[in-house]
């Protein structure tokens, strides 16, 4: 890997870390600034959302409120990032921990995979496509097919 590819890899890794931080804190405007205008978010049972406005609507429904930050922790691990000029791909594990539930309920809410594409625009890496594959849910156990949309919201307390 040359110096530019290394710098790109680090910037994309930081981009993904910002996604999780801004989702969990929440900082909606900073989160939205991580996407291309034509970005696609394919969230499986939570639908496909095209463009920043549709993505914003999804996040408004599902992220926490500013007075209840960190109801979840989106830990993204095991990055596989491939850079090809001004485009790149990434794969990450997701361990989504829920912190608003009863103490006797498991905190791991979802185990999933992120498959992503990135594009450099005006010298800055942005997320252009996200596809999630859900593997495990505390409500369903092992997910072997398309999971149903669960009635979960970070502020609901369970």
Q: What does the model show?
A:
The chain is α+β, with helices and mostly antiparallel strands and 158 residues long. The protein has one domain (3-142): Roll (Nuclear Transport Factor 2, Chain: A). The protein is 25% helix and 42% strand. A hairpin with a 5-residue loop joins β1 and β2 (48-50). The radius of gyration is 16 Å and the shape is globular.
Q: What is the topology?
A:
Layout (H helix, E strand, L loop, with lengths): L2 H22 L3 H5 L2 E8 L5 E3 H12 L9 E13 L2 E12 L9 E14 L2 E14 L3 E2 L16
Parallel strand pairs: 1-6
Antiparallel strand pairs: 1-2, 3-4, 4-5, 5-6, 6-7
The share of residues in helices is 10-25%
Any idea of the CATH class? Alpha Beta
How many domain modules?
1
Strand content: 35-45%
Describe the largest sheet. Answer: 7 strands, mixed
Which outline best applies? globular
* Low-pLDDT segments: 153-158
The tally of helices reads: 3
What's the count of strands? 7
Give the N-terminus to C-terminus distance in angstroms.
45 Å
The CATH topology is given as: Nuclear Transport Factor 2, Chain: A
Question: What does the radius of gyration come to?
Answer: 16 Å
Indicate the mean pLDDT: 88
Element order, helices and strands?
A: HHEEHEEEEE
Structural class: alpha+beta
Return the CATH architecture.
Answer: Roll
